[in-house]
Design brief:
The complex is a heterodimer of chains A (510) and B (104). With 510 residues, chain A is an all-alpha fold. Chain A has helices at residues 4-27, 31-36, 43-54, 57-70, 76-91, 93-98, 104-112, 115-148, 152-203, 213-216, 228-245, 247-250, 259-276, 280-290, 303-311, 315-359, 363-387, 393-417, 423-447, 452-459, 462-479, 488-496. In chain B, a hairpin with a 2-residue loop joins strand 1 (60-61) and strand 2 (64-65). The chains are: A mainly alpha (510), B mainly alpha (104).
């Protein structure tokens, strides 16, 4: 399926990313520009940027592949990805913006006044970020291999270089413009081929897909050892709670002008995501019409890219494939740059900045350290993506959500709403939630999917790991009231009081 | 009698400021819990309907099976309406709060 059109589309998307990133570079001068775009981003631009950043390889290729493979139950995934923003909106959007912190570790330290919790949060940001970056590089590899025949390492390598350049050059300001543009590239690239394929399908007499009844009926078990209701409910919970704990999602809330702006941005995000997620099921269902069963040696993640040239041989099919390949690269680049930005911020602030400041001080060396951190943030997950066997794009992303749901979600929810959270309670919750989710997922990856309740509980741990983390945090907090941070009341005033109320002492100035 | 706005009590974390903050947080949290509860009920309604009325599992509307329409299409506008309703309500809570605490 090698096609010069697809190569041109991928190159165009990469160039656009770099050019828009360079425009941002001319605007970024101060250190705060690098992190939060000077906090002047309007809700509409910010909503496009958040959606652009969020729609990754998993949404662009993985969801349609899973729907093709397993049917209607996989529609719960985009539902969970979208409802994650509804939960984020009602639980943390405005307070998180009012906290005045740059990153999740900043928030944890500001709320709990503990360097140790800051350190654990930083490790989690890097861990979740890297886990989420791996499938972006793998998706890029398989896309480029499919459309150009290039070796598998090339696609991920291209994404790694473009992301390191874009993040290192302009930081968050450039990334905001880049992400906003990429949402619209992705929607167009997925929508236009979908409408063409649907029109062709109608013209050929709308043949029904050849499927098993269990493919189109929700929650039908695939065998006696399968527990679809638990599996689905736990996955949806992981996505709903995990969204607020993803480092590249919350960091973007700091670019809203105020708490009210943060909420309005989120409402627009839900509309933009909902519109996008109407499209993947079209590919999943039409895929079943074109390929009643998956051809041997073909990964279901590539169904979206294979469909146009199967249905429409010739130049038309090649054009549509080129659009999809370009859109897929927009997805890899935007998510990878958002993640790389967050991981870079943490590496810069936690590892490099303290050392550089001790040696020199001032703003310029700070920005040089930021660029070194940007390179570190992408090279390591790229290496991991080359040595691990791909699990399926949406599956790997789901693991990152589950870890976030068992660690940051309890910390943020209790931190924002519960005044009796103690330092020890927060730490115990992070450790228990993080350990249990990581062990369960590691076990599943190492031994492969197991049947029965053990297999279901280990493969989808959010349903038990998150309540376990919350309970631990609450019980330990109640047992250690002397460890409630002294500034809790002031923090709560800051998090919940609307901006229009003038607070001379409690507010942190931007 | 208090001759200054409550916002200074909030700022200085007096007992009075604390009572007002508690009230604000409780009102916001109640609203958030209501939205989450509506979401959970809405999501659970689909499998329960399919279980209680088996015909809905295979019924098609305009050629698309009912479960696909619900999960693939209807969920999204519903989530958007709920989000917009929440945003308006929480802004109203904040406006009422601001008027009370800023009054001299």
């Amino acid at each position: 399926m090698s096609s010069p059109l697809s190569v041109a589309a991928v190159a165009l998307v990469c160039l656009t990313t770099l050019v828009v990133g360079a425009l941002g570079l001319r605007l970024s001068r101060r250190t705060s520009d690098f992190y939060v775009a000077g906090r002047t981003v309007s809700p509409r631009l910010n909503a496009s940027a958040i959606s652009g950043e969020y729609l990754s390889a998993a949404s662009f290729l993985g969801v349609a592949g899973l729907i093709y493979d397993r049917g209607v139950d996989m529609l719960w995934l985009p539902v969970g990805y979208t409802l994650g923003y509804l939960v984020l909106l009602v639980v943390v959007a405005a307070p998180m913006r009012r906290s005045g912190a740059y990153t999740l570790p900043d928030f944890a330290e500001a709320r709990l006044g503990s360097r140790a919790i800051r350190l654990v949060s930083s490790l989690l940001v890097v861990g979740i970020g890297w886990l989420y970056l791996v499938p972006q590089f793998q998706g890029a590899g398989l896309t480029l291999t499919l459309v150009t025949g290039a070796p598998a390492w090339v696609g991920g390598f291209v994404v790694m270089v473009v992301v390191a350049l874009a993040v290192g050059a302009g930081g968050m300001r450039s990334i905001t413009f880049v992400q906003a543009v990429q949402y619209w590239i992705k929607v167009t690239a997925l929508a236009v081929p979908a409408f063409v394929l649907l029109a062709l399908w109608f013209r050929s007499g709308s043949p029904a897909p050849q499927v098993d009844p269990s493919w189109s009926i929700p929650l039908s078990p695939s065998g006696p050892d399968d527990h679809p209701t638990y599996r689905t409910a736990s996955t949806v919970l992981a996505l709903c709670l995990g969204t607020m704990g993803l480092p590249h999602v919350l960091v973007r809330y700091y670019t809203n002008p105020d708490g009210v702006g943060a909420r309005r941005t989120t409402v627009t995000v839900i509309a933009l995501l909902g519109f996008f997620y109407l499209l993947p099921p079209v590919y999943g269902a039409l895929g079943r019409v074109a390929y009643p069963s998956l051809p041997p040696g073909v990964r279901s993640d590539t169904i979206v890219l294979r469909l146009p040239e199967t249905v429409l041989p010739g130049l038309g099919g090649q054009l549509l494939t080129a659009m999809l390949a370009g859109g897929a690269f927009a997805a890899f680049l935007s998510t990878a740059s958002g993640l790389a930005m967050s991981v870079t911020g943490v590496i810069d602030q936690e590892l490099l900045r303290p050392r550089v400041t001790r040696m020199a001080g001032g703003d310029v060396p700070g920005i040089r350290g930021f660029r070194v951190a940007a390179i570190l943030a992408v090279v390591i997950p790229y290496g991991v993506s080359r040595v691990t066997e791909p699990l399926g794009l949406a599956t790997t992303v789901g693991l990152a959500f589950a870890v976030a749901a068992a660690t940051f979600a309890p910390l943020i929810m209790l931190g924002v709403w519960w005044r009796r959270l103690s330092t020890w309670g927060a730490m115990a919750g992070l450790v228990v939630g993080g350990t249990s989710a990581t062990v369960a997922i590691g076990w599943t990856i190492a031994t492969g999917p197991a049947g029965g309740w053990t297999g279901a509980l280990l493969a989808s741990p959010a349903m038990w790991a998150t309540p376990l983390a919350v309970t631990t945090a609450v019980l330990v907090s109640l047992a250690t009231p002397s460890r409630i941070p002294a500034g809790t009341r002031r923090t709560m005033v800051r998090l919940h009081t609307p901006e229009r109320v003038a607070l001379a002492r409690s507010r942190i100035r931007d | 009698m208090h001759a200054r706005p409550v916002s200074r009590d909030l700022d200085e974390q007096t007992e009075l400021g604390d009572v007002y903050l508690e009230g604000l947080m409780r009102a916001q949290l109640r609203l958030s819990v209501a939205v989450v509860a509506l979401t959970v009920v809405g999501l659970a309604a689909l499998p329960i309907t399919l279980l209680l009325v088996p015909a809905t599992r295979t019924i098609t509307i305009g050629g698309v099976p009912f479960p696909w329409l619900v999960l693939g299409v209807a969920v999204y506008p519903a989530a958007w309406f709920l989000a917009r309703w929440y945003t308006r309500q929480s802004e109203r809570i904040e406006q009422d709060f601001a008027e009370v605490v800023d009054a001299p």
